[in-house]
């Protein structure tokens, strides 16, 4: 098509549908290959319509494609901005979730061997959300931490939302893995209250101390408590009625402390 | 946005789009959305549907820019995407709303005669003498490159009808030209 | 009428290091530069201005409000933009996604309006062409611009930039200065740097910080004035010079107490700054 071009009148008539089919087909075939003739068409088209269509295209193209976690959150009717915040939590990433699943699965399978496997699972399951929460809020692991500190979004709200999400996800995973547990069915839920207790305690203490230190302390303390309780009342003593009650008390106390001091979370966690 | 043109070639714009350059996509839009809009409007009278298809097309261009083979005209590639997006949308809607523009008693200007001659030689005039239904089928299959089934979807007729009409069209054209 | 930024005698100590030992200054509309060597306390001070850190003592008033009060702190944060010294990013996110994420933290809840705002700031820093690219796939200079873009979300009245041009090559630094100048026309911008050229190019006011104290606060012209008559050229280093170095044209530029009859040179901002902070600064501004 070098050298030969359409004339403006024909193009305009074509744009307004006033040419025969064969002519139209010819125009169309030519336009596919000829840029200057395409430019002839532009004035004949409704620019306002094209601009508004572009705005919609830009919006669809710019909007980030939600990942799996975000899509699940939206399915649960969580508003879009909150889901995006949650989905960016470091400990809700796919890699973390996979690791979580592996650890729990492994521990659950270990219970097949003997009772000690079950004990391992029950001790481990409550610590995992603590690790998740520490990962979510640790200064060095949240890349946009400093920027987030200066932002108006209520830090306390973010803390609660992210922790709830982490606990929720970890609990679901643990619940799933506990189906593989050998032993009495009730044992499968014995980790739930300890999980809540440890997590809420970690959050409450993180107001004063670095969250990673708190997490380590709480984790170690829990392991010690489980071991210590065995001396008194047998292998699963920590998970008996007294143990569950203690966990409930710790949970309630920690949550109360959290709410009472919620304003103090507006400055960096751990006071750094 | 329509007052200035990006200096890059279509191929460069498409490559940049594949790389995540949104202004390149905008450049492609400025160049190709106008003719796409008109061409689609000649296949489908539903204005809102055509709007949606144009949007779908450029979103698909954004997502699939890397898959362009690098050969042939970018415009043709875009049309391929556009017509298939149209088919997708039609699949979800009843095809009864279609009507191709068929103004009656059209004259062919001198320039248009030249154009016809350049593109189609003697065939051009013969095409115009076909009946509207046959013309529609020829346009869909031969000119737009659709399969019989896709043409059927576009026009709202069964695949078999598309095939019989094509046969009749071919026969008539052969007769005209011999 | 109170200035947007008022800092009165703030102090801060971290473990054993005294970061700020009673710094004061005010900043109004336009660009105010915080100049000082590494370790002068610039980042600490800027973190206070960004309401991220509280002073141990002294007073701070930002936009007429007191950041020590939670409700007022929230109000300040809503009108604030902050570019930290080492901005971190979620590297797997695209440029657009990351700025969108920060926009959510800035309470822009409506999606369409938020996206339009993200596009606006990306355009302002010239990053529209790469908005669809992943952050790990763009250059360091572009990443710094992404960080600048997020600081502009919501058209904040107060913009805090901590070493925005550090480590950037001259062309990029020029671009940043252009953007910062433009922003400064309508808002209060406080930026820290240890490059005197940055200050000379864009700042209407300059504060020199050293060992946690403000040694000077005023216009760049006033700072240069301080070095009037104290910069001279000679064939060799002069014994009365506080600092001296050889120029490109072979002469030695001396600053300090000029001897009588010396060939005086027109002082630059750098000369004045060096006179103020002395030898320690030399190592980092060269």
Can you describe this structure?
Chain A is mainly alpha-helical and 272 residues long. Chain A has two domains: 8-62, no CATH class; 68-271. Helices cover 69% and strands 0% of the residues of chain A. Chain A has helices spanning 8-15, 21-33, 35-41, 47-62, 68-75, 80-87, 94-113, 115-137, 145-149, 155-178, 192-205, 211-233, 241-260. Chain B has two domains: 1-99, Rna Polymerase Sigma Factor, Chain: A; 100-178, Arc Repressor Mutant, subunit A (Orthogonal Bundle). In chain B, helix 2 packs antiparallel against helix 3 and helix 3 (47-64) packs across helix 4. The radius of gyration of chain B is 18 Å and the shape is globular. Chain C is an alpha/beta fold and 286 residues long. Chain C has two domains: 5-219, P-loop containing nucleotide triphosphate hydrolases (Rossmann fold, 3-Layer(aba) Sandwich), CATH 3.40.50.300; 224-285, no CATH class. In chain C, helix 3 runs parallel beside helix 5. The two termini of chain C are 40 Å apart.
Give a topology summary.
The complex is a heterotrimer of chains A (272), B (178) and C (286).
Chain A: H1 8-15, H2 21-33, H3 35-41, H4 47-62, H5 68-75, H6 80-87, H7 94-113, H8 115-137, H9 145-149, H10 155-178, H11 192-205, H12 211-233, H13 241-260
Chain B: H1 10-18, H2 22-41, H3 47-64, H4 74-92, H5 110-120, H6 123-128, H7 132-143, H8 148-155, H9 159-177
Helix pairs in contact in B: 1-2, 2-3, 3-4, 7-8, 7-9, 8-9
Chain C: E1 5-14, E2 17-27, E3 30-35, H1 42-49, E4 57-62, H2 70-78, E5 80-83, H3 95-105, H4 111-124, H5 140-151, E6 158-162, H6 170-184, E7 188-193, H7 196-202, E8 205-210, E9 213-218, H8 220-225, E10 231-234, E11 241-246, E12 252-256, E13 263-264, H9 269-277, H10 279-285
Parallel strand pairs in C: 3-7, 3-8, 5-6, 6-7
Antiparallel strand pairs in C: 1-2, 1-4, 8-9, 10-12, 10-13, 11-12
Helix pairs in contact in C: 3-4, 3-5
CATH architecture name of the largest domain in chain C: 3-Layer(aba) Sandwich
Number of domain modules of chain A:
2
Strand order of the largest sheet of chain C: 5-6-7-3-8-9
Q: Specify the CATH class of the largest domain in chain C.
A: Alpha Beta
The radius of gyration computed from the alpha-carbon positions of chain A, rounded to a whole number of angstroms, is: 30 Å
The CATH homologous superfamily of the largest domain in chain C is named P-loop containing nucleotide triphosphate hydrolases
Gap from first CA to last CA of chain A:
70 Å
Q: Ranges of chain C with pLDDT <50 over ≥5 residues?
A: 280-286
Rg of chain C is 21 Å
Identify the overall geometry of chain A. elongated
- Total helices of chain A: the number is 13
Mean pLDDT of chain A: 81
Low-confidence stretches of chain A: 268-272
**Cα end-to-end separation of chain C:** 40 Å
What structural class is derived from the secondary structure elements of chain C? alpha/beta
Helix content of chain A: 55-70%
Strand content of chain A: under 5%
Based on CA inertia axes, which overall geometry of chain C fits? globular
